[in-house]
Amino acid sequence: MSEKGLVVAFQGERGAYSEAAAVAHFGEAVQPLPCPSFEAVFEAVTSGDAGRGIIPVENSLAGSIHRNYDLLLRYDLTIVGEVQIRIAHHLIALPGVDLDDVARIYSHPQALAQCERSLDELLPNVERVATYDTAGSVKMLRDGDIRDGAAIASRRAADIYGMTVLRDGLEDNPENYTRFLALGREPVVPDGGAKTSIVFSMDNVPGALFKSLAVFALRDIDLTKIESRPLQGKRWQYFFYIDFAGSIHETHCRNALNHLQEITTFFRVLGSYPRGV
User: Fold this and answer.
1) pLDDT per residue over 128-149, tens digit each?
2) DSSP string of 70-87, one letter each residue
3) Is residue 178 among the annotated active site residues?
4) Are 15 and 137 in contact, with CB atoms under 8 Å apart?
5) Hey, what CATH topology would domain 194-274 get?
6) Which of 51, 127, 215, 218 is spaced 20 to 30 Å from 34 by Cα?
7) C-beta of residue 171 within 8 angstroms of C-beta of residue 88
């Protein structure tokens, strides 16, 4: 999919993995809009400053990004697509800096954790410094002309900031993938394989969750993810986020959702969208 000139908001600096996800989903012609926070991504799309937003919702190693599930509920936006990208971490420094010059390694805490064993073998005595962003760490090295440091980030970040890759593939586990959701102001009608995301809550009574999941099982609808989040102001009660294979435009899916609405106290469709690979 390629949308020329489309402004896509993402959290982080240029070169962030979220920007790579935007390019993978929408094409190289997109206009990336860096945002300082996930809330700012939602605000940019809501206000019209961006035509689309892209947010990470889960990593194959670290699990769900709970903050973004909460924001999906807070904002009146719709999910219009999804994309998965492999997270390949690289050790990046200023041109002319060698591995022996590195006294500190900067990156987001999750990236540092995902490269822990590799760093123990490569630079066991080097200080590790947590920062707000992977690509932001590369930008910090460049802007500060820091020649005794290196950053862990994407190759895209190294290219954008004119830096050198000291080591490729620093991640400990190659099965490191992040799933991203594309956000828009208006829903789309998926063509072909589709996925739907919903959120609901129900009274805390025996069998309530079983009954809610049964509406899908009875119709052979595949649930691809279930996530629970606290229902603010109601102790030990929860919102349930569910992704399932299918579209609200398919009769059996629509019937399942109509059935679900009869037994829930809150229900909302977050989007039906083309299913990512």
Assistant:
1) 999 999 999 999 999 999 999 9
2) HHHHHS--EEEEEEEEE-
3) yes
4) no
5) Alpha-Beta Plaits (3.30.70)
6) 127
7) yes
Query: Residue 189 to residues 30, 87, 185, 248: CA-CA distances in angstroms?
Result: 22, 29, 13, 9
Quickly tell me which residue has 């822990």 as its tokens.
116
> Any idea how long the chain is?
277
CATH of domain 90-167: 3.40.190.10
**Residue indicated by tokens 């020649």:** 147
Domains 7-86+176-184 and 90-167 equal at CATH topology level? yes
Q: Report pLDDT for 62.
A: 87
H/E run at residue 105:
strand 104-107
Would strands 78-86 and 149-153 be described as parallel, antiparallel, or unpaired?
A: unpaired
Architecture of domain 7-86+176-184: 3-Layer(aba) Sandwich (3.40)
Token pair of 201, please?
């809550």
Catalytic residue among 10, 38, 180, 240: 180
> According to the model, what pLDDT value does residue 231 have?
87
Pairing between strand 52-59 and 164-167? unpaired
Give me the catalytic one of 10, 38, 134, 178.
178
| 30-56 residue pLDDT tens | 999 999 999 999 999 999 999 999 999
pLDDT value for 237? 87
Domain boundaries, the chain: 7-86+176-184, 90-167, 194-274
- How many Å apart are CA 72 and CA 199, to the nearest integer? 9
Cα 64 → chain centroid: 9
